[in-house]
Amino acid sequence: MNTKIFFQIAFFFAIAMTAKAQQILTVEDAVKIALENNYEIKIASNDLKIDQQNVSLANAGVMPQLNANVTDNNSIQNTTQTQSDGSERKLNNARNMNLNYGVALNWTVFDGFRMFARYDQLKELEKLGDAELKLAIFTKVSDVISTYYNLVQQQQQLKALDTAIVISNLRVTTADNRYKIGKASKLEVLNAKVDLNTDTTTLLRQKELYANTKIYLNEILGRDVKTEFAVVDEIAIDETLLLPELMTLAEKQNPQLQTQIINKRISELQLKQVKASRYPTVNITSGYNFSRTEASLGFITQSTGQGFTYGFNASMNIFNGGLQNRNEKAAKIQVENSKIVVEQQLQTLRSQLSSAYQTYLTNLELTKLESKNEEIAKENLDITLAKFKIGTIAPLEFREAQLNYVNAKVRNSNAQYAAKVSEINLKELAGNLSLSQN
Questions:
Q1: Taking a C-beta distance cutoff of 8 angstroms, is the pair 169, 142 a contact?
Q2: Which residues neighbour 388 within 8 Å (Cβ) at sequence distance 6 or greater?
Q3: With left for phi above 0 and alpha for psi between -120 and 50, is residue 168 left, alpha or beta?
Q4: Cβ atoms within 10 A of the Cβ of 309, count?
Q5: Closest CA to 282 of 89, 96, 114, 40
Q6: What are the tens digits of pLDDT across the range 74-132?
Q7: How many CB atoms lie within 10 A of CB 395?
Q8: CA 387 → CA 55, 109, 168, 390, distances in Å?
Q9: Which first-to-last residue range defines the signal peptide (predicted)?
Q10: What CA–CA distance (Å, rounded) separates 25 from 330?
Q11: Across the strands, what pairs with 219?
C-alpha cells in the first residue's frame, strides 16, 4: 500500500511540474495573438485597406483626365489623279504619311452632382468595410474567449476525474486488504477494480477532448497547432451586466446593425446618382497637338501644324423610353427596403439581447446553486470515506457518494462556463466585448 501511495504522489507531482513547465496563456494573450494572426481578421483588414484606397476624388470622377496621344499612319499606293483640265497624273509606290501627337485634357465639370454623391458613397463604403472588420474581430474574439474558457472548464473536470481516480485506487487498495484478512469477498475487490477502470476510461476521454480543444484554439489563434500551453484555473464571471445599458450600447455599437445603417445610406446615395441623369453633363476639352502630313503626289507634298485646342460639350437626356423613371423607382424601392432591413435588424437585436439576458440571469443562479451542491457533495464524500475506511458503510454507498461528488464538480464547472458564455454573448451583441475578461 505504501508503494502505491508513493507512485500516486509521484504521478501527481509530475503532472504539476509539467503544468508549470508549460507557458501559461492568459485570455488577454490569446485575444492579442488572434488579432495579429487570425486569417479571417487579416482578410477583413485587407478588404478595409482596399476600401480606404478607393476613397479618392479621381475614383469618384471629380478630377480631370490628361492623356498623351500619338497616331502614325503610313501607306504605299499606286496613285492616279485626274486634274480639272482632264489631264492625269500617275505615280506608283506613292508614299503617304500622317503623324499626330500631343496631350488631351477632358474634364467633366458638371454631371448633375453625380460625382459628389459617388464620392460620399465611397466614404460610406469605407465605413462599411470598417464595420465588417469590427464584426469579423468581434466574432473571432468571441470564439477565442469561449474556446479558452471551454479549456478552463475541461481542465477543472480533469481535476475532478483525477480525484475520482485517486479515490477509486484507495477503494481498490482497501477492498484488497480487507479481502486478504477475510473481511471482504472477492466480489468487492472486482467491483472496485471495474469502477476504477470505468473512471480511467472517462478520464482518458476527457483528456482526448481537452487535447483536441487545445488544437482548435491554436488553429483560430493562427499559430502552430502543436504549440503547448496551459490555461488559468478559474472562470471569473461579470455579474454586473444590466439589460437597459446593454440595449443602449447595442443600438450604438452593434456591428451588424451599423452595417445595415450604412447600407441604407449607400442606397440613398445611389438614388442621388440615378437622379443626376436628369441634369445636363458638361465637359471641358483642351489639348496641345502636333501634326505632320507628307504625300508623294498632290499639290501639297508636306504640311505641319501645332498648337492648342479647346472647347466644351454638353449633353442632356430628354427621352430614353421611360428608363429614367424606372431606374428612379427601383432605387427608391431599394432605399425603402434598406430602411425595413434596419428596423428588422434592430428588432432582432432587441429580441436576442432580451433572450440572452434571461439566459444570463438563469446561469448566474445555477452557478450559485451548483457551487452549494459541490460543497454538500464534498462534505458527504468526506463522511462516507471516513466510514468506508472503518468498514461501517457498504461499497455501493461509497461509490454513490463518490459519483455524486464528481458529478457535482462537473455540473458546477459546466454552470460556470455556461454563465461565462452568456456574458460573452451579451457583450458581443452590445458591441462592447472587452479584451479584459479576467
A1: no
A2: 171, 174, 395, 398
A3: alpha
A4: 12
A5: 114
A6: 888 877 777 777 777 777 887 888 899 999 999 999 999 999 999 999 999 999 999 99
A7: 19
A8: 78, 97, 15, 5
A9: 1-21
A10: 54
A11: none
Contacts for 128 with CB less than 8 Å, ≥ 6 apart: 51, 259, 262, 263, 266
Location of C-alpha cell 498648337: 307
Q: Which amino acid is at 134?
A: K
The 3-class SS string of the chain reads CHHHHHHHHHHHHHHHHHHHHCCECCHHHHHHHHHHHCHHHHHHHHHHHHHHHHCCHHHHCCCCEEEEEEEEEEEEEEEEEECCCCCEEEEEEEEEEEEEEEEEEEEEEECCCHHHHHHHHHHHHHHHHHHHHHHHHHHHHHHHHHHHHHHHHHHHHHHHHHHHHHHHHHHHHHHHHHHHCCCCCHHHHHHHHHHHHHHHHHHHHHHHHHHHHHHHHHHHCCCCCCCCCECCCCCCCCCCCCHHHHHHHHHHHCHHHHHHHHHHHHHHHHHHHHHHHHCCEEEEEEEEEEEEEEECCCCCCEEEEEEEEEEEEEECCCCCCCHHHHHHHHHHHHHHHHHHHHHHHHHHHHHHHHHHHHHHHHHHHHHHHHHHHHHHHHHHHHHHHHHHHCCCCCHHHHHHHHHHHHHHHHHHHHHHHHHHHHHHHHHHHCCCCCCCCC
Rounded distance between C-alpha atoms, residue 389 and residue 395, angstroms: 10
- Return the C-alpha torsion angle 382, 388, 390, 391, nearest 10: 160
Question: Per-residue pLDDT tens for 36-87?
Answer: 999 999 999 999 999 999 999 999 999 999 999 999 888 888 777 777 777 7
| 424 close to 143: Cβ distance less than 8 angstroms | no
C-alpha cell at position 187: 466480489
| Residue 171: φ, ψ to 5° | -65, -45
| Owner of C-alpha cell 447600407 | 263
CA distances from 363 to 350, 359, 369, 418, 422 (A): 20, 6, 10, 6, 8
State the Cα–Cα distance between residues 435 and 438, nearest whole angstrom: 9
All residues at 6 or more sequence positions from 1 whose CB lies less than 8 Å from its CB, including other chains: 173, 177
Q: List the one residue out of 91, 55, 105 whose CA is nearest residue 301.
A: 91
Domains of the chain: 2-37+115-278+321-429 (1.20.1600.10)
Residue type, 50: I
Whole-angstrom Cα distance, residue 437 to residue 414? 18
What is the per-residue pLDDT across 164-182, written as a single tens digit (0 to 9) for each? Answer: 999 999 889 988 888 888 8
